[in-house]
């Protein structure tokens, strides 16, 4: 297989990784930030899972007639990472709900604007 | 029989306490459970440290699955040192929390604070004790997620934004770390720290290792607030409840430093990570900027907690400086400073919490004339401030001494000049507070709210012990320097 064909999963991984990171940093909307964060985390799942898969191999279940198995360990690790990812996004969204209640907006620049105002008379 | 299971109990005890507290729901019961668990965890940590000092590293196979297949808990000189610091801070802070949290957190959330604190403690102790790379990530996320909640518990709405920003940065950091260990796993096929280190010695293709090293360094750099990745820290520390700030300042960033040290010396190895790459000059350079620039920024902060937070970034610079120097004296300074700064900054944040408790504000302008209203607090602040500056006879001095020694040994006298400059800046920012407290009289000082309840007595006791420790550790250096030396011997011995 060519260098590209054999490694195409890495290209997808890196694309998702960079896209997710970009959205997280560049967007001012807090929910969009979390979506970017989620894409970023998902790219890592692919980084672990893809190399564990052998083309033509079965799931790691011992049975007659099957010799090659995919590596189960990355799957287990990523199950854990998915749970962590879900918990992170859930907590992030919960904080966004609280921010919306306290500030009335989820746009970062407007929140920062509101935070600056009460400070000025104090100085 | 129970003694052999101490490594597991160290983590399981606080982990089980968290859901128990949620079920109890009563504030007093929740506090009692959290305090008992913290004290027990401290007891276990001390017992483990003594056992390690006597008989060498302890390896505990979780669920009897032998390493490297199962998860191994490994207590060696370095992790025992950190366990005592983390659990000790927990045990010191919990008696204080009763009154302070009741005053700073909304009533219906108080028991949730204790549950989150127990989770955070379990996560931090887990990071330190585990010998499995992926397990570190899981514990890191347990401690981080609970930390975000703890910060969001702050009364001001800014605490929410601070928690959200920390969540974004912290998750990026943790994900970078997972990418790094993913690459390591692809190269070695193992996740056990000792096993990975052994297998890495036969690896000839270094490019994935360099990528892994870079991802892990940046990821942990975000977590430990290495300059210029520290932006999340001042907001988080300034808006979190005082107890949370104290606990995090003394433990969370320190534990990330510990993981970084473990990676550099016991996974990649000293020769690959530090000698063969420009990483040392990078660490020394960034640390040098941190210790001077962040001290300068601290000088201009109008709020006491925010000032101490910027000072924390500068002090973390000292710790990474010793890591970059990478000789015996520098590393001893680094590790000793983990403890010394933990104790000193812990004491200062406890005092700030006490001031917030009595006066309702930590703005430096509101501290005027405090020496009349709270003479003991003002005096204690001076003592802990001296340790922050690094005056001989306090804890802060011993670690700076070793750092200076390390810098001279490496033939870098300009670092010594920077350490002195940063210490002078510390004199200036501590002086600002002392000046406000002692030298500016406030004509119509309101009578202090002297509610001498049992809970506020506990607050005073905790604060007094922590301030006393900053002086005691300056003279009795068996734990901070003595144990650090032992850990450094382990680090420099490297991968066996």
Which features characterize this protein?
heterodimer; A: mainly alpha; Helix Hairpins; 5 helices; B: 496 residues; mainly alpha; two-stranded antiparallel ribbon
Describe, in short, the structure shown.
The complex is a heterodimer of chains A (123) and B (496). With 123 residues, chain A is mainly alpha-helical.
Provide structural commentary:
The complex is a heterodimer of chains A (123) and B (496). Chain A has 5 helices and no strands. With 123 residues, chain A is an all-alpha fold. Chain B is mainly alpha-helical. Chain B has a domain at 290-496. Helix content of chain B is 78%, strand content 2%. Chain B contains 20 helices and 2 strands. Chain B has a two-stranded antiparallel ribbon with strand order 1-2. Chain B is globular. Chain A binds chain B through residues 17, 21, 24, 30, 33, 37, 40-41, 44, 47-48, 51, 74, 77, 80-81, 84, 87-88, 91-92, 95-96, 98-99, 102-103, 111, 115, 123, and chain B through 134, 137-138, 141, 145, 148-149, 152, 157-158, 160-161, 163-164, 167-168, 171-172, 175, 178-179, 182, 185-186, 191, 302.
């Amino acid at each position: 297989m060519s260098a590209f064909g054999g490694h195409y999963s890495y290209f997808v991984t890196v694309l998702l990784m960079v896209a997710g990171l970009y959205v997280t940093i560049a967007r001012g909307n807090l929910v969009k930030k979390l979506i970017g964060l989620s894409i970023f985390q998902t790219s890592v799942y692919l980084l672990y899972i893809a190399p564990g898969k052998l083309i033509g191999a079965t799931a790691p279940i011992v049975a007659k007639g099957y010799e090659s198995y995919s590596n189960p360990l990355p799957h287990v690790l990523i199950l854990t990472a998915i749970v962590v990812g879900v918990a992170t996004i859930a907590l992030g969204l919960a904080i966004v709900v609280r921010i919306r209640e306290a500030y009335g907006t989820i746009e970062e620049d407007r929140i920062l604007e509101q935070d600056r105002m009460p400070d000025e008379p104090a100085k | 029989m129970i003694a052999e299971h101490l490594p597991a109990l160290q983590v399981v005890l606080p982990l089980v306490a968290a859901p128990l507290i949620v079920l109890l729901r009563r504030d007093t019961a929740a506090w009692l459970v959290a305090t008992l668990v913290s004290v027990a965890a401290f007891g276990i940590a001390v017992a483990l440290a003594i056992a390690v000092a006597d008989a060498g590293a302890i390896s505990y196979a979780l669920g009897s699955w032998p390493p490297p297949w199962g998860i191994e808990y490994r207590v060696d000189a370095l992790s025992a040192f950190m366990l005592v610091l983390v659990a000790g801070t927990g045990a010191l802070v919990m008696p204080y929390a009763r009154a302070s949290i009741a005053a700073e957190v909304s009533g219906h959330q108080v028991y949730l604070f204790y549950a989150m604190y127990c989770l955070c403690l379990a996560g931090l102790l887990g990071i330190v004790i585990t010998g499995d790379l992926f397990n570190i990530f899981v514990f890191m996320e347990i401690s981080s997620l609970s930390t975000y909640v703890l910060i969001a518990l702050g009364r001001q709405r800014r605490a929410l934004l601070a928690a959200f920003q920390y969540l974004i940065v912290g998750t990026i950091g943790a994900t970078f770390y997972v990418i790094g260990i993913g690459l390591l796993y692809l190269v070695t096929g193992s996740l056990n720290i000792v096993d990975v280190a052994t297998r890495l010695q036969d690896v000839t293709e270094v490019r994935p290792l360099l990528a892994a090293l870079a991802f892990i360094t940046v990821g942990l750099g975000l977590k430990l607030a290495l300059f210029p990745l520290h932006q999340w820290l001042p907001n988080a520390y300034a808006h979190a409840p005082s107890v949370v700030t104290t606990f995090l300042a003394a433990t969370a960033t320190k534990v990330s430093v510990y993981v970084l040290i473990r990676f550099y010396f016991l996974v990649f190895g000293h020769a690959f990570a530090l000698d063969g790459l420009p990483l040392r000059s990078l660490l020394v350079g960034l640390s040098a900027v941190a210790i001077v620039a962040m001290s300068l920024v601290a000088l201009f902060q109008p709020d006491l907690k925010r000032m101490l937070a910027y000072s924390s970034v500068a002090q973390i610079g000292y710790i990474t400086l010793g890591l970059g120097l990478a000789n015996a004296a520098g590393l001893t300074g680094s590790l000793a400073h983990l403890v010394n700064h933990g104790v000193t900054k812990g004491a200062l944040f406890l005092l700030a919490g006490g001031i917030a408790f009595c006066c309702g504000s930590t703005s430096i302008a509101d501290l005027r004339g405090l020496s009349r209203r709270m003479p003991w607090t003002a005096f204690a602040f001076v003592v802990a401030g001296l340790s922050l500056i690094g005056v001989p006879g306090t804890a802060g001095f011993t670690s700076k001494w070793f750092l200076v020694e390390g810098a001279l040994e490496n033939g870098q006298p300009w670092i010594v000049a920077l350490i002195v400059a940063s210490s002078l800046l510390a004199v200036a920012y501590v002086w600002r507070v002392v000046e406000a407290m002692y030298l500016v009289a406030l004509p119509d000082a309101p009578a202090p709210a002297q509610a001498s309840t049992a809970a506020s007595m506990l607050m005073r006791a905790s604060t007094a012990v922590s301030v006393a420790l900053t002086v005691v550790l300056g003279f009795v250096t068996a734990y901070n320097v003595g144990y650090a030396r032992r850990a450094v011997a382990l680090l420099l011995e490297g991968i066996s």
